[in-house]
């Protein structure tokens, strides 16, 4: 049986690990699986190098860390290759218009460039009362320039955050909605919105049914570390402070997150088709820097069940009730 090789992602990062040597000959070995699970709890994210670039391997890797979870929204495209075994493997695929790439869907202008697949800092399923434990991502098609995915560690973010701002967030809950339109983003906006996604019509029908969700801006892990976990994208207010002061605070925090996202709170991953990345969704934020609207880009994500138990819907509903209404 081949051994896996483990190293830190970079000498200046307090989080993250890189793993090589995982494949079909050792992925079912329980000693290897437990080592990976322990590493994940400690480091918060793992970049797997030189993986077999298939949906089957992505599903097998995901199941090392827990059972899969379907995506909450029906309007989100699924990957057709994985079939019923991997319900909820979502397909995020941007195809440029060869005649007029700058008239494509979901485009923004950022630092003077028209970008596709730009995603601000966020955590997955923030609009749910339950957060998924983790996600596993791969990029079969990536742009030759740009298109990196950023990962920001909430533990390191808490340590580096200005103390005055951090204290204002203690014991505060942030309100999130399912509305993913960048044109509606309120906090930390550092781009110019250009075009919407055509799928937004179907999305907005689901937005009307989903209640707003509350999640703490700061929470504490069982291991003792505090985590700053505010995703500016899809945030709409501060619970009990939906006023100008609450909005000003969240905007200031969001811009500070943007600033720290360019420093040692974040890791920016340059994709290879044989990479797979898993991150702790309870601890990490992630973002996509975007790429030129001229380039095709595709990422596929599996979602792993698990919840930290601190989120809730404001109207007291449970997620099962919401799913029945959406279906």
UniProtKB/TrEMBL annotation:
Residue span, TauD/TfdA-like domain: 6-302
Cofactor(s) this protein cannot do without: Fe(2+)
One protein family per Pfam: TauD
Record keyword Membrane present: no
Keywords: Dioxygenase, Iron, Metal-binding, Oxidoreductase
Superkingdom of this protein's organism: Bacteria
One example GO MF annotation: dioxygenase activity
Family: Belongs to the TfdA dioxygenase family.
Name of the protein in its database record: TauD/TfdA dioxygenase family protein
Native organism taxonomy: Bacteria, Pseudomonadati, Pseudomonadota, Alphaproteobacteria, Sphingomonadales
